[in-house]
Specification:
It is built from 5 helices and 10 strands. The protein is of the alpha+beta class. The strands form 3 sheets. It has a 5-stranded antiparallel sheet. Strands 3-4-7 form a 3-stranded antiparallel sheet, with no helix packed on it. The radius of gyration is 45 Å and the shape is rod-shaped.
Length: 257
């Protein structure tokens, strides 16, 4: 209402201004300013007339504003969708990291089998909160330089057991053995017994899947320090009391995601 009144008063005052015709001034008597009610009516008429006269321009400008607003709204929606999607993805990934299975490998015992060949028992533990699925073990024994060089010990490619599942906090023991045709020479046994230039390695990896369908891999490698116990085992001598060998991890149990 105030805007209409202002327009009405402005229109009324402009109507009372003197005019110039043929360079002769004609004095006209000043009229009283319109009342508030009249000003509002005049303002309403002026606004309606302006809308009628400039209808196409007003529609064009309005359409332009609507189009600009629609574009801005569309861009904002895209950014909002991406932000929400990233938040959901991060939340899902964080939940999976907390709940999934985690396999840890430790050497357990070192001894001689009935056939006189050395063997190391490996223990696998699931420290996760959900089962480790399709667990497969790849393990071997052999002699390699110490400290280990690039490419040694190698990566076994034959699984030693069928896929199994390991429940949370459960363990699995599996053996690391020599290849069937592998026989140690006396020179190799002497180097391993000394322990300074070569050692017996138990090495391999554990492959498994978590409940979310993601594959994981835990590599491991450990050596047996030298001494008479190692020489005796490598030559097939059994000790009824069992050997208390010292294991030294040479590859950290990091996971390949």
């Amino acid at each position: 209402m105030g805007l209409l009144a202002w327009i009405g008063f402005s229109a009324g005052n402009n109507a009372n201004e003197p005019t110039n015709n043929n360079h002769q001034d004609t004095n006209t008597s000043e009229k009283d300013s319109p009342s508030l009610g009249s000003a509002i009516k005049i303002g309403f008429v002026v606004v309606c007339t302006s809308i009628r006269d400039f209808r196409e321009e007003i529609v064009a400008v309005g359409t332009l504003f609507i189009a600009a607003f629609t574009i801005i709204l569309g861009i904002s929606t895209v950014f909002l969708y991406r932000a929400t999607s990233d938040l959901v993805t991060d939340s899902k990934k964080s939940s999976q990291i907390q709940l999934r299975a985690y396999i840890v490998v430790h050497p357990k015992t070192f001894g001689v089998e009935e056939n006189g060949r050395p063997i190391i028992q490996i223990t696998v533990t699931n420290f996760g909160r959900t089962p480790a699925l399709k667990v497969q073990s790849f393990a071997r024994l052999d002699i390699f330089p110490y400290p280990p060089t690039v490419g040694n010990p190698p990566n076994p490619n034959e699984a030693i057991q069928e896929p199994i599942s390991i429940q949370p906090k459960d363990t699995l023991d599996f053996p690391a053995r020599l290849l069937k045709d592998r026989v140690f020479g006396l020179d190799e046994i002497n180097k391993v017994s000394d322990g300074s230039v070569a050692r017996l390695y138990a090495f391999g990896r554990i492959e498994y899947f978590d409940i979310f369908g993601d594959r994981h891999e835990t590599p491991f490698a450990t050596t047996i320090s030298g001494g008479p116990a190692v020489r005796n085992i490598l030559t097939g001598v059994k000790n009824p009391e069992g050997w208390r060998a010292r294991f030294e991890t040479v590859r950290t149990e990091t996971e390949i995601f």
